[in-house]
Amino acid sequence: MFLLQKTKYSPVSLTSSEPPREIDDHESPGFLSEKIRCDCPNSKSQGIKLYLITGLNIVFIISYSLWGIWYYDTYWRLNGALRRASTYSPIHDLFDLEMKPQTLNGTLFTPKDPSIARQLPNPIADAIWDEWELTRYFSVTADQIRAMGKDPSIVSKLEDEDWGLGDDAYATVLDVYHQLHCLNSLRRIAYGEYYNTTGASASHGGGYHHSQKGEMYEVHINHCVDMLMQTIQCSGNMNLITMHWVAEQAYPFPDMGVNKQCINFYKLSEWRKENTLDLEKYVQKMQKKEDHVTELPAPDDYYKYYLPDVVNPNHLNWANPGNDFNL
């Protein structure tokens, strides 16, 4: 009889043409008992790569987001360029002011088509100046006032019963037209004989300061000069005036026709006229109701110039030392 022997078989190789062979008990069991070897990176290096990839993704997301914000503000957001050069104004959200480069007319001698600022006094030009000087009022909300850095609790409210604008409406005016008023005041002084305007009287067709005389007139004019100076200094004007050789001039002559970023001022003025509160109604309805308004103290100098015979209540019993309540 044949003796039966225990045999073991090695696995079939899919790539080898050699037939499987028997393995006895004394042979190595082959790859079944060997440790599996892996050329994969260890867990520490994998962790470092993961951190690097995550960090790069975060940097990319932040950079792309910042670029998106810049692109939106520059090319898509209404009045984006103007917003970046200005403090907050609700006007920025209302209509396109069409800011774009414009070359100013800086010629020394009067051009063929002069602006009203270069013209001698005349009724047509004066009508434009008078419109700019007219105080026109606009409604804003409490949140918009806070965004402007002001406290709505001390801003004159437009009562809903009078205006029908709801319980969140407050009175404002556009600052640029106050600056034009100041400029026009100086212009009228320059043509004082035509306007009957001198240092003793500021009469110009019914302005609110038409009766100012003497010291108070000087206070008003000095206020205007100071406002114009501060506005010019605050404008961030870094434009350069180029110098040129000109016939008959021994030294280089300035070309003051500089390039600036300008809004469409005509469009602003038209919007102002179309969206103002009713001025006659304003006069009727906005007279102070003593019983439910929050008042600021009148400046000390108001009592000095307008009410010299009235006791100034700001400093009764030595109150408020050092505070002149100037506004």
From TrEMBL:
Pfam families attached to this UniProt entry: UstYa (PF11807)
Biased composition (Polar residues): 7-18
Biased composition (Basic and acidic residues): 19-28
Keyword annotations: Membrane, Transmembrane, Transmembrane helix
GO BP, one annotated term: mycotoxin biosynthetic process
Positions of the UniProt region annotated as Disordered: 1-28
Transmembrane segment boundaries: 50-72
Recorded family membership: Belongs to the ustYa family.
Protein name as catalogued: Tat pathway signal sequence
Record organism: Pseudomassariella vexata
Source lineage: Eukaryota, Fungi, Dikarya, Ascomycota, Pezizomycotina
